[in-house]
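Example record

The entry below shows one chain as it appears in the dataset: sequence first, then structure tokens.
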Amino acid sequence: MRTVLVTGTGGAGRTTVAAATALAAAREGQRALLLTADRDGTPEALLGIPAPRPATAPGARRPPWSPPVEAAPGLWAARVAADDWFRGELTALQERGHGALDMLGAAPLDPEELTGLPGTEAFALLRALRAAHDAGPKAAEGAHPGGEPNDGWDVLVVDMPPAPDTVAVLALPEQLRRYLRRLLPAERQAARALRPMLAQLAGVPMPAQKLYETAERWERELAAVQALIESEATTVRLVVEPGPLAGRALRTARAGLALYGCRVEAVVANRLLPTGAADPWLAALSGRQQAALKELHGEWAPEVPVRELPHLGRDPIEAGDPGEAGGLGGTGRLGEAVDPIGAGGAAHDGGPATGLAALAGPLGSPGPRPDRPAAEPWTVEDRLAGEGVLVWRLPLPGADRDTLGLVRRGDELIVTVGPFHRVLSLPSALRRCTVSGAGLRDGSLHVRFAPDPDLWPRGL
């Protein structure tokens, strides 16, 4: 499935761009799902659909989202239901562990008294990301249609949190898998049959079988989500309202996304004011925007296209005819506006498109990409003959030299880029080397490794 993650600077219009991207896909005949974690009702107002109904499936079968609603032919919308999903998961966990709770004399919590904890949204969003790939338009309440073929959606558009939070969410699967491997190594599971004897010798209880089974299940779930994030079919659209501060935040986000190998397919410059205004105040604002826009093109293009969206003069929900709901040019409901709007962004009656339709045209539908593991972005350059070193090249566009950090820890290299942090496993050849230097050049971090005489194979 083609997946587009829409993020960017705070308040730049991520939800609007995500909705317009999903609309662009639907207008080209693709089945699109818009998935949002927004809780303030903006997506429903933009699409002209009612507030989502809570899922009714009990316990662990409760999906991580509200039942998808068809907002238009080929376009569904759903909201990540973090609190409902948390209640379902915790209720199911209590049911599985009721024996231990009874032994401890603990009273289980009722679902009605459970509220989501900080961090719940990130886990629910990742779970919903995978569920969207497993489910299809007929999968109401998040369950697969029994016995029927599940064609799924062609395009998944996810309205993500602001860029720093998005990087943290996308980093979670890899980080948690690493923690599991350290805390519950696979080699220890081979000694399950010896656990009772080892417990007597050590004088302390050994980890229970259910603990390892739970860890294995978590490993499978996290590996599936990580594979989805790292697929070539998953890309990022960065939304920004051009300005000096926004440009700096975008560079930080770019470095963080590059650190985790995420592919940025486009930068969306949103809410661009018209140029050549007679009003000096408006002309000054537009001039500053255009200067920032020029910097964006210089930093990103042509490697990453910069798509420009006009300021509509008012909110997209109000951009249709007065007194009408929905963001698509006076239609009242999105579903009534998809067909009347042509692929070029203009209405079939010759008039200009407004609201989301005016933004869907310039954004365009996500292009096709193969759903396969992306190529490793890190490369090793052999300079042994001339300089006696191997150079590990890590593309980190947008990184600032003053915020970079490197620590060698055994067979791993810990890389810090501003607020972002990743532990990278060294390729086998570099594990026999010592770090002899590093430098940031042309948007890439070059780490130099010199062969360790005690470890390097003789004769090479």
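Notes for this example: Residues 126 and 211 are 22 Å apart (CA to CA). Residues 137-150, 319-352 have pLDDT under 50 and may be disordered.
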